[in-house]
Design brief:
Elements lengths: L1 H35 L7 H8 L1 E2 L8 E2 L8 H7 L8 E6 L5 H14 L5 E5 L2 H18 L8 E3 L2 E4 L2 E7 L3 H4 L6 E5 L14 H7 L8 E6 L8 H8 L3 E6 L6 E3 L5 E5 L5 E9 L6 E3 L3 H6 L2 E4 L8 E4 L11 H11 L3 H12 L13 H6 L14 E9 L2 E9 L5 E10 L5 H12 L2 E2 L5 E2 L1 E7 L5 H9 L6 E7 L14 H5 L4 E5 H11 L10 E2 L8 H7 L2 E8 L2 E8 L5 H16 L3 H7 L26
Parallel strand pairs: 3-9, 3-16, 4-7, 4-8, 8-9, 10-16, 17-22, 19-25, 22-23, 23-24
Antiparallel strand pairs: 1-2, 5-6, 6-7, 10-11, 10-15, 12-13, 13-14, 17-18, 18-19, 20-21, 26-27
Helix pairs in contact: 10-11, 16-18, 17-18
């Protein structure tokens, strides 16, 4: 009886002792089944939402990745996913919108979720090394990937099922002999045009992926100059998608761009960037920036080129999430850049996300300049402290402009004269002498004289110009000739040619493109101050004058196989422009600090036409002989 009662107890005890072994077996089986099971079918955006960790060292924000922060990146990442059939994706963008994080997410996904050979390329070797050290290394560490790599060296990381290269688009050796399924190309518009003599680096990258049927190529960049910009070309070859957001007033979709941005001014006409908002082109309703998060979540990509070869996306910095780049900053940067071509180029590329068009820059509106005319109330306004002149020579006349200069090269057109007659006749030059030697007075009666002048010696009247100037160089009146080309000095040292030497005259070369770049920049200034151009309310400053003053624009042209910038006429006559260029160049002949003179309240009142004859010393006392 006792034996029958104890047998079940023994069985129970034996079963309890075997439990740990059963649990271990279950754990091992579960791990084996999990390892053999295929990974979850996730797109890059879904994977990033579950796995991506942002670090403070590599990102402006840290913590878990959320697609809600940058909803416009979701479709781009999904197009780069293996579920999408497309091979190429182009992203032309402004700055501060998360484009680089999209690229990193793609790299991580194909390393961890769908292992394969990957290449990530920057502009230069140094930038590639910095990108790996400052952006990738902290990300790998935050996500615990250090032990994942079986071989970890600079620029190359091996892992189960693939390899990850980091290189530059400027090194042919890094682009050659590396079969890659996924290539991630960053800032391609800044890559070299010819990679070590082997051709376009984008074409070399493309060749590395040809053997993979499920290849992915991501072209990511801010644009540069139209005609040279790779990302613009890539975007235009694609279906050209723009991120449309709904208007909270009428519900219609539209694109956030600078043409739709408005802001207020105060009673004095000062701009108030903090009032920036978007105006709907459909209902004219205005949207404040605080609604960004709500509206971005409702946005959608809309293709505009149905015949495009692949998905291509454009996004400006106006879509930058709250807390990043604001509309107020965009307006402030625009107002600071306005009128300066180089600053406007940076603003257009990085804020609007558009290529800078140097070939078709809009000319200045001559009618607006005509409306700018003002009554000085005297010959020379108080702000002008020195006068110069520029003279243009034609076969049947001379044209001359007197210009006053003040602090920061603020300028005042004082007078413009047309002297009819053949420049081979002395009477024509006598008339010019009278104009250049005349006194131009300020409101308090202070007389100012032309301190320097340059006379155009090009054309058919070269000898007459040399003959006139040779006798007046002591008055700082020199013969001059314009020279095209970038980065030339405003004026050269006085030189000579065979023709000028025959008349005993010196010749000064003027860097016309340099002066025109400056002039067309400041001509766009709208408020008086440094650089601003004033014009008098005189009949000679009529519509025709301003048409000729704005008669040229800068365009891109091929010259001997190179792309260069040249000024070309858009109006038949340009004499006022030439006169202004020479008047500006003549200021460099005087050699004074205009800003310092303006600060002291003094003016250059010396009359160069009046020779200073040194007096001979007189003997007052011959001494006493002892």
């Amino acid at each position: 009886m006792d034996r029958q009662l104890t047998e079940p107890s023994a069985v129970v005890q034996k079963f309890e002792n075997s439990l740990p072994y059963t649990v271990n077996v279950d754990f091992c089986l579960e791990g084996a089944i999990k390892a053999l099971a295929p990974p979850k079918d996730l797109t890059i955006s879904q994977w990033a939402a579950e796995n991506r960790i942002l670090t403070g060292e590599a990102s402006s924000e840290k913590g878990k990745w959320t697609n809600e922060r940058t909803p416009y990146l979701v479709e781009i990442m999904d197009m780069l996913s293996p579920q999408s059939p497309c091979s190429d994706v182009a992203f032309m963008k402004g700055s501060q919108i998360g484009g680089t994080e999209c690229l990193i997410n793609t790299a991580l996904y194909y390393m961890l979720q769908n292992p394969c050979p990957i290449g990530l390329y920057q502009m230069t070797d140094d930038e590639a090394a910095n990108f790996e050290r400052m952006r990738l290394a902290p990300t790998f560490a935050a996500m615990g990937m250090d032990k994942y790599f079986t071989n970890d060296t600079a620029g190359c990381k091996e892992y189960p099922g693939g390899i990850f290269f980091v290189g530059s688009g400027g090194s042919a050796s890094q682009l050659r002999s590396k079969p890659l399924q996924v290539v991630l190309c960053d800032e391609i518009s800044g890559w070299v045009k010819d990679c070590n003599g082997e051709g376009d680096p984008c074409d070399l990258v493309k060749r590395r992926t040809t053997n993979f049927p499920r290849k992915k190529r991501f072209w990511n960049s801010t644009p540069t100059v139209r005609g040279e910009c790779r990302i613009t070309k890539k975007f235009e070859q694609g279906d050209q998608r723009y991120y449309n957001v709904p208007c909270p007033h009428c519900g219609e979709l539209y694109v956030w761009k600078f043409a739709n941005m408005v802001w207020d001014k105060d009673a004095d006409g000062n701009n108030l960037p903090y009032t920036a908002r978007m105006k709907c082109p459909h209902c004219k309703g205005e949207t404040m920036e605080w609604r960004k998060t709500e509206l971005l979540a409702q946005g959608q990509w809309v293709p505009t080129n149905p015949n495009g070869a692949y998905p291509s996306y454009h996004l400006s910095a106006f879509y930058s999430p709250l807390g990043w780049y604001s509309w107020e900053e965009a307006v402030t940067d625009f107002l600071e850049a306005k009128g300066d071509p180089q600053k406007m180029k940076v603003w257009t590329n990085n804020v609007c996300g558009e290529a800078w068009d140097e070939d078709n820059q809009e000319s200045h509106d001559y009618s607006e300049l005509e409306l700018r005319r003002e009554d000085y109330g005297c010959d020379v306004p108080d702000g002008a402290v020195i006068l110069t002149a520029g003279v243009d020579t034609q076969d049947d006349r001379l044209e001359v402009e007197i210009v006053g200069w003040g602090r920061g090269l603020e300028s005042w057109s004082i007078d413009y004269r047309i002297i009819p007659g053949d420049p081979d006749l002395d009477i024509v030059w006598e008339s010019l002498d009278h104009i250049l030697g005349n006194a131009y007075t300020k409101a308090d009666g202070t007389p100012l004289y032309v301190a320097a002048a340059l006379v155009d010696s090009g054309g058919h009247k070269t000898s007459a110009v040399y003959k006139y100037c040779a006798k007046r160089e002591w008055r700082r009146i020199y013969a001059s000739i314009g020279a095209r080309g970038p980065n030339r000095p405003v004026i050269s040292r006085p030189g000579s040619t065979k023709k000028s030497s025959a008349e005993n005259a010196k010749l000064i070369t003027v860097g016309t493109d340099t002066v025109k770049d400056w002039f067309f920049n400041v001509l766009g200034y709208n408020n008086p101050g440094p650089g601003y151009c004033h014009f008098p309310e005189k009949d000679v400053y009529d519509a025709e004058h301003f048409k000729q003053l704005t008669a040229e624009v800068k365009k891109k042209r091929m010259s001997r196989g190179f792309l260069t910038s040249v000024y070309e006429k858009i109006y038949e006559r340009n004499e006022p422009l030439d006169c202004r260029v020479y008047a500006r160049a003549a200021l460099n002949l005087v050699g004074i600090d205009v800003d310092k003179m303006a600060e002291t309240g003094n003016s250059y009142t010396r009359n160069p036409a009046r020779r200073i004859i040194p007096q001979k010393g007189r003997v007052i006392n011959q001494g006493v002989k002892l």
